[in-house]
Amino acid sequence: MRKTEQNISILIMIKSVYQSLSKAEQKVADFVLKNADETIYSSVTLLAEKAGVGETSVIRFCRKLGCRGFQDFKLSIAQDLVNPTEQVNGEIKEDDSIETICNKITSHNISALNNTTSLLSKHELMKATNTFEMAKKIYFFGIGSSGITANDAKYRFMRLGFNADSATDSHIIAMNASLVSKEDVVVGISSSGSTKDLVEGIKIGKKNGAHIIALTNHAKSPITLYADTILLSASKETPFQGGAFASKIAQIHVLDLLSTLIALNQKDRTYSAIEKTAKAVVDKLY
């Protein structure tokens, strides 16, 4: 990243190159300079919409500033706006007591759960429930931290008696997606909704007719363009907070709601499966 190498503020750099930008790129620059705080929490799709341009204009704008892409650009803005401790820990201060830190983190996580419950569309949740119940096979895809959530989801729904699988490697995701059919469900998990390898896999699954469910923090992000059902979780992250536990807690909360509704709707099937899987591992415990 050119900006980091020269230790130049990205916001100052935007002003310095402004006249050399295209009209569309200047629209992006105008929005970013006026709304830098909002920019670091936006997806590329949302920023493009707010600036009144296409996503390609946003990407070109980022690259003209010497950034490798949109996420690299957001990282640079985050560096400009907050100090290193705030970048990682949000509102927590270095001189906070242990009790204060515990209270702040607890409050933040509770807020993530409450906001997720408020944001989550009950119609979309019920649609996902009905789709799961009719699915021949369910695939959970995720990269990085969201890949761990995908594995958790596979485990939970397997215990409920579903033919579930997960993939966290971009190659495996692509190959699995190429083999799905219209009888299958693909769940793409991404806080940002902008992870390239995941979105590419979701596109393949969509092309092959699978029902696509996006579990993301951003209603307007690349992954939602291919989703038949959108499940929104609510946890804001700066680029320095990628993989934050609050985001994972929000994701797990949505999956917990979904799995509970399904278990209640299909008592005989799910309870029987839970009993069988519990007995299968009973000898593994002391």
Main attributes of the structure:
286 residues; alpha/beta; five-stranded parallel β-sheet; globular; disordered N terminus
Structure, explained:
- Helix 11 (145-159) links the parallel strand 1 and strand 2 (164-167).
- Helices cover 60% and strands 9% of the residues.
- The protein contains 15 helices and five strands.
- The protein has a five-stranded parallel beta sheet with strand order 2-1-3-4-5, sandwiched between helices.
- The model is unreliable at 1-7 and 84-89 (pLDDT under 50).
- It has helices spanning 2-6, 10-17, 23-34, 36-39, 44-51, 55-64, 70-81, 84-89, 98-119, 122-134, 145-159, 170-178, 196-207, 245-265, 267-281; strands spanning 138-142, 164-167, 185-190, 211-216, 229-232.
- By secondary structure, the chain is of the alpha/beta class.
- It is globular, with a radius of gyration of 21 Å.
Helix count from the secondary structure assignment: 15
Oligomeric state of the chains in view: single chain
Percent range for β-strand residues? 5-15%
Radius of gyration: 21 Å
User: How far is it from the N-terminal to the C-terminal residue, by CA?
Assistant: 53 Å
List the secondary-structure elements in sequence, H or E: HHHHHHHHHHEHEHEHEEHH
What's the short story on this structure?
By secondary structure, this protein is of the alpha/beta class. 60% of the residues lie in helices and 9% in strands.
List the helices and strands and how they pair.
Blueprint: H1 2-6, H2 10-17, H3 23-34, H4 36-39, H5 44-51, H6 55-64, H7 70-81, H8 84-89, H9 98-119, H10 122-134, E1 138-142, H11 145-159, E2 164-167, H12 170-178, E3 185-190, H13 196-207, E4 211-216, E5 229-232, H14 245-265, H15 267-281
Parallel strand pairs: 1-2, 1-3, 3-4, 4-5
Helix pairs in contact: 3-5, 3-6, 5-6, 9-14, 10-14, 11-14, 12-13, 14-15
